[in-house]
Amino acid sequence: MPAVVIIGAQWGDEGKGKATDLLAGRIDYVVKFNGGNNAGHTVVVGDEKYALHLLPSGILTEGVTPVISNGVVVDIEVLFGELDALSARGVDVSKLLISANAHVITHYHRTIDKVTERFLGKRQIGTTGRGIGPAYADKINRVGIRIQDLFDENILRQKVEGALNIKNHLLVKVYNRRAIGADEVVDELLSYAERLRPMVVDTALVLHQALERGETVLFEGGQATMLDVDHGTYPFVTSSSSTAGGAATGSGIGPNRIDRVIGIVKAYTTRVGAGPFPTELFDESGEFLRKTGFEFGTTTGRPRRCGWYDAPIARYTARINGVTDFVMTKLDVLTGLESIPVCVAYDVDGVRVDEVPVSQSDFHHAVPIYENFPGWTEDISGARTFDDLPKNAQDYVLAIEAMSGARISAIGVGPARDAIVVRHDLLG
Prior knowledge:
The protein is of the alpha/beta class. It folds into two domains: about 5-90 and about 205-420, Adenylosuccinate Synthetase, Chain A, domain 3 (Alpha-Beta Complex); about 105-200, Orthogonal Bundle (Adenylosuccinate Synthetase, subunit A, domain 2). The protein has twelve helices and 20 strands. A hairpin with a 2-residue loop joins strand 3 and strand 4 (about 50). Helix 3 (about 105-120) crosses helix 4 and helix 5 (about 155-175) packs across helix 6 (about 180-195). The longest helix is centred in the middle third of the chain and has 22 residues, at about 155-175.
């Protein structure tokens, strides 16, 4: 049985939770391997809608073991809040496993995130202010706090004091904020320890043993390829590895264990936060996509920037991740449009460029070259086979598939859990 990675193939918010849910009846473990509570999945189960931020979406499926692995940064207050909210709605959360090596987001990470972003002024990155970047920075600087540290008060206090020795100088002397006391941070973290303890294991070992038993493990990426710290639109990116390669480092499994990589794309494109976005729309078409697709952040509530489908980005993410299958979401949002443009290449200073430019400056100035496809007016939310779709919708999907570097194996046609057309077996 396979190890499968699901990644966002644009700038996030593509609907990874729906794709995970599509496979949930056939998988044993769902693993979050990067990011924190700076992104979200909205999953619809029957008449119920669940907004998940830190937890893997597989926590909603009976029989699946959800895992938060070492590549994630964990805000424990948010974690417990999500668990309590799900428990109150009758969801069994008792199987959640958390890596002892995952790093912790503390009070001072959130504070530094917010004041730094304000300090940048016009040069803001567009962070969520939830402490994710500063927590990852501490991880790389080797002054981070890990989950396992909460079970040794002496080690925890030493690490917190060491981190605050530097950070308090920054807060007081640069940002004109008050110093943060080590005691308040340590006491808060220790208060979580006993509730957290039963969830904490060597998740890398657990996942290895699961694969050895022939069980199916799904790795669920937070954020998306174009926000990857190495391969995205740097510096307007997240702080972690959100590509398929990040699943190996973020979970402790070998890359040769990964069998399939599923890239999620919307039938158009959205982005939250600052940074280049060649197909962004500032007219009534952009507002149509935003309102019809309800393009507001699951975590932040911010309106998303909206634009047409960008085929060079899809090809880029297919190549970077080794995508074997695409899942296209929100095809239904395009219903009613007379004509649907697709970006097939860019014009950069008068030169046609067919791939994503390596230069950030060139990408920032890239002007999309569009090919237009006829739209459709029929309601497609009830379609369950490809033949159920209107001819123009079929042609749109097939054209995008030919441009995007991998087959489109499933198509979302509405917000409901079963509103999806399956063309190819995602695990076959």
